[in-house]
Amino acid sequence: MAANIDIKTTSWKLVEVGRVVLIRSGPYTGKLATIVEIIDHKRVLVDGPSTQEEKIVPRHSLALSHATLTPFVIPKLPRAAGTGPVRKLWEKEEIDNKFASSSWAKKNAQVERRKNLTDFERFKVLRLKKQSRYEVLKAAAKVRASA
């Protein structure tokens, strides 16, 4: 008797050639790069040919402990591809745009914006939060009263 079994692939982010990584420490902190070659189980060769000048990461060896794997992959990237082919595939896949529109990048931008607020701007945020909370509680009380 054959059983009906649904086989689902895992959603793990694997260390693979073409995987886009976010660099967490070092001189390129916060920038995106892609894995072009796996050196060993702790290090990879990365290249970040971003379309924006200030986000370019030169080709170098990176410890995996200094990188966070993103859900983005450049498919069919040949092993040890040079910067030119990587740049073409990077632009074709629109990696910069995909990452910028992800909730991860939006959250990072919000955290960065909050870090740079002045004292008065923090006070204004506090007042707006209080005002919002008051309106929500008032609406909830109205619903409770009518029920």
TrEMBL record:
It is found in: Cytoplasm. Residues 14-41 form the KOW domain. Keywords: Cytoplasm, Ribonucleoprotein, Ribosomal protein. GO terms for biological process: ribosomal large subunit biogenesis; translation. The keyword Oxidoreductase does not apply. GO terms for molecular function: RNA binding; structural constituent of ribosome. Pfam families: KOW, Ribosomal_L14e. InterPro entries: KOW, Rib_uL2_dom2, Ribosomal_eL14, Ribosomal_eL14_dom, Translation_prot_SH3-like_sf. One of its GO terms (cellular component) is cytosolic large ribosomal subunit. It comes from the Eukaryota. The keyword Transferase does not apply. Belongs to the eukaryotic ribosomal protein eL14 family. Component of the ribosome, a large ribonucleoprotein complex responsible for the synthesis of proteins in the cell. The small ribosomal subunit (SSU) binds messenger RNAs (mRNAs) and translates the encoded message by selecting cognate aminoacyl-transfer RNA (tRNA) molecules. The large subunit (LSU) contains the ribosomal catalytic site termed the peptidyl transferase center (PTC), which catalyzes the formation of peptide bonds, thereby polymerizing the amino acids delivered by tRNAs into a polypeptide chain. This is KOW domain-containing protein. It comes from Talaromyces amestolkiae.
